[in-house]
Design a protein that fits this description.
The chain is α+β, with helices and mostly antiparallel strands. It has three domains: 9-114 and 121-164 and 336-433 and 572-618, Alkaline Phosphatase, subunit A; 169-295; 440-565, Gyrase A, domain 2 (2-Layer Sandwich). 25% of the residues lie in helices and 26% in strands. The protein has a ten-stranded mixed β-sheet with strand order 1-35-3-34-20-2-19-7-8-18, sandwiched between helices. Strands 10-11-12-13-14 form a five-stranded antiparallel β-sheet, with no helix packed on it. Strands 9-17-16-15 form a four-stranded antiparallel β-sheet, with no helix packed on it. The chain binds zinc ion (ZN). The site of zinc ion has 6 residues, from loops.
Length: 618
């Protein structure tokens, strides 16, 4: 099906990504010495150019952190990730040493061969067809812990370590921003008046699935009898508690409760981190960020109990939607400072988990993962004037916030290194991709609806692609798989072999014609025949695979304009030849040796780990 209507692939650049690793100026121990323990941590979204900038600024300079790794260990100039440059895809390739054509993980979300058109496979919860390292290590009797590696959700033996934690599903209760209005407050006689100001108190019910789990009491009061009446302190407690706890504006507090979520077997410990975003000292109003309630998901059960007792409930992920709202209207959402504090809290929590595990669990191989760079950059990569929330001020603030994320990551690396034996163990730091700034979203299905190629229906007030649509676009990041609904191949297929070529041509035309001010938004549209050159020739891949140009993000949404300004600011998933999308590889510890490697490929990393673990040649 290779024909003239396909936009030319970026052949030379794509193939350059497949070049072999070129070792250079290596010193110290030969690469391949056996390590006592190997710890590999992935910092999602930490691109090679960003790390190099941080090392030379120097935003990061802790001797035990990334600077020390770069100076004293083994460091690759960059890692050419696999296509598409998405999280689930690249974590599968990092941990298997296999391309998506062999892992079958072709996107974060995709349609597996044999599934109906509108069915989805979640790349974060699916076993790779090529064996991941944890399957090999466990088969070899090496005790393996997995602290949040994408693709290891502990749902089946092949997606599990001997122990570990997995990414929490939805929170028990979502976060919300509450405007506590003085006009709605009651007096609180337990808190005595100061400077003539009576304390104001609100009751906030904490409700899950219609059941009230807790009543939070929040009060504002004056505490200094200085003749200046002002609400300067916030008091809070759970209803039924005797004593109040006190804090000031901009401070956080944790609320814990026992509850059984829909997927829990019994009661579990949940927690939420909330913050007083604003305190009106004059009138007494409070703007409260009431954090989401989450719990830690750890395996097996006795490990979960011991770990939860030590580190507490999962603190929640940074609230990206709330920051995105704030960039455009500082009266909405959460401010940058609050978001970065969430980033830092999650990093410190994961540090505590890893350090407790390293001090208390026997292991040969430990995987760890931090989502923070990716989360920050999606919500805060504001660097270009054509981005919706760009101003001199937002761009400056965003740059400062990013530096704080860099220092937080560096602290995590230093924490891991401090628990290892530099003579016997190896610490490996990797990432799965960088991110590029975006300014617009492209609704691929909407474009195909407009071209008469995707059929939609309304269901419960929402639009969705109909099960009998001739095709569908399934998007992740800056790309999308376009699947035909083919008779004889797909359950409920409607497209015949004779119609196939014409429909794909029309779809490619419709997408290639999409443009902003005459500039196309699509970089490449690959047909099945083109996928081998991209490392993506697997039956799970689309009949067409569309890669957008950097600057544009793909969306599966069906409502609204095909191209519209993006409310978030960083994305990945583009073709891997863009250097900003390259990931990182550093290793430290005597068995790893020392030196600089030129560019390596994502699939070159797993074989190195196998050698350090003594698995190679078994
Ligand atoms: Zn990622």
């Amino acid at each position: 099906m290779r024909s003239g209507w396909i936009r030319p692939l970026i052949g030379a650049a794509v193939l350059a990504g497949l070049s072999l690793a070129m070792p250079a100026c290596r010193t110290g121990a030969p690469e391949g010495a056996r390590a006592a323990r190997v710890v590999m941590v992935s910092f999602d979204g930490l691109g090679a150019p960003l790390l190099d900038r941080w090392l030379s600024d120097p935003t990061i300079s802790t001797p035990a952190g990334l600077g020390g790794m770069a100076a004293e260990g083994l460091k690759a100039e960059r890692v050419r990730m696999v296509n598409p440059t998405l999280t689930a895809v690249n974590h599968a390739s990092l941990i298997t040493g296999a391309l998506p054509s062999e892992t079958g993980i072709v996107s974060n979300s995709y349609r597996s061969l044999g599934d109906a058109l509108t069915q989805r496979t979640n790349g974060f919860r699916t076993a790779s067809e090529a064996p991941p390292l944890w399957v090999k290590t466990r088969a070899a009797g090496l005790r393996t812990g997995i602290l949040l590696w994408p693709g290891a959700d502990f749902s089946t033996p092949e997606l599990s370590g001997d122990f570990g934690i997995s990414w929490p599903t939805r929170p028990l209760i979502r976060a919300e921003i509450l405007e506590l209005d003085p006009a709605q407050a009651e007096g609180e006689p337990e808190l005595p008046p100061v400077d003539g100001l009576q304390a104001l108190r609100w009751r906030i019910p904490i409700i899950a699935s219609g059941e009230e789990l807790l009543m939070l009491e929040v009060a504002v009061m004056d505490v200094l009898p200085d003749g200046r009446p002002r609400y300067q302190t916030v008091a809070f407690r759970n209803q039924g508690e005797v004593s109040w706890r006190y804090l000031e504006e901009r401070q956080w507090f944790e609320t814990r409760l026992d509850a059984a979520g829909s997927s829990d077997h019994g009661k579990e410990l949940y927690g939420a981190w909330s913050k007083v975003l604003h305190l009106d000292m004059h009138r007494g109003g409070v703007r409260l960020y009431r954090g989401a309630f989450n719990r830690l998901l750890a395996f097996p059960g006795n490990f979960s109990d011991r770990l939860t007792a030590e580190v507490g409930p999962w603190p929640g992920v940074p609230d990206e939607r709330a920051l995105e709202a704030w960039w455009l209207d500082m009266g909405k959402g959460i401010d940058l400072d609050t978001f970065v504090e969430q980033v830092e809290r999650l990093d410190r929590y994961l540090d505590n988990v890893a350090q407790w595990v390293m001090a208390n669990e026997d292991f040969d191989f430990l995987l760890a993962y931090h989502p923070s760079p990716d989360e920050y950059l999606h919500a805060g990569l504001i660097v270009e004037k054509d981005q919706w929330a760009w101003s001199h001020g937002t761009a400056f603030a965003a740059r400062e916030g990013l530096q704080r994320c860099g220092r937080s990551i560096d602290q995590s690396v230093a924490g891991l290194w401090s628990e290892l034996n530099p003579l016997k163990d190896v610490l490996v730091v990797v990432s799965d991709h960088g991110l590029l700034p975006i300014h617009d979203e492209v609704l691929l299905n909407r474009a195909l609806v407009d071209a008469g190629l995707v059929e939609i229906v309304e269901q419960g007030g929402r639009l969705r692609v109909s099960d009998s649509s001739p095709m569908i676009a399934v998007t992740s990041g800056g790309m999308g798989h376009i699947y035909l609904n083919l008779k004889g191949r797909d359950p409920g297929g409607v497209v015949s072999e004779e119609e196939k070529g014409n429909l794909l041509r029309r779809a490619a035309r419709a997408l290639a014609d999409l443009g902003v001010e005459g500039e196309p938004v699509v970089e490449t549209i690959a047909s099945k025949d083109d996928l081998a050159a991209l490392g993506l020739n697997h039956p799970n891949a689309g009949d067409l695979v569309v890669f957008l140009k950097p600057g544009f993000a793909a969306s599966s949404r069906l409502d609204g304009k095909v191209i519209r300004p993006s409310r978030y600011y960083g994305q990945h998933g583009y073709l891997n030849h863009h250097d900003a999308l390259c990931g990182i590889f550093l290793a430290r510890g005597a068995p790893a040796g020392k030196g600089k490697l030129k560019e390596i490929r994502a699939v070159d990393i797993a074989p190195k780990i196998e050698r350090w673990l003594g698995l190679a040649g078994r």
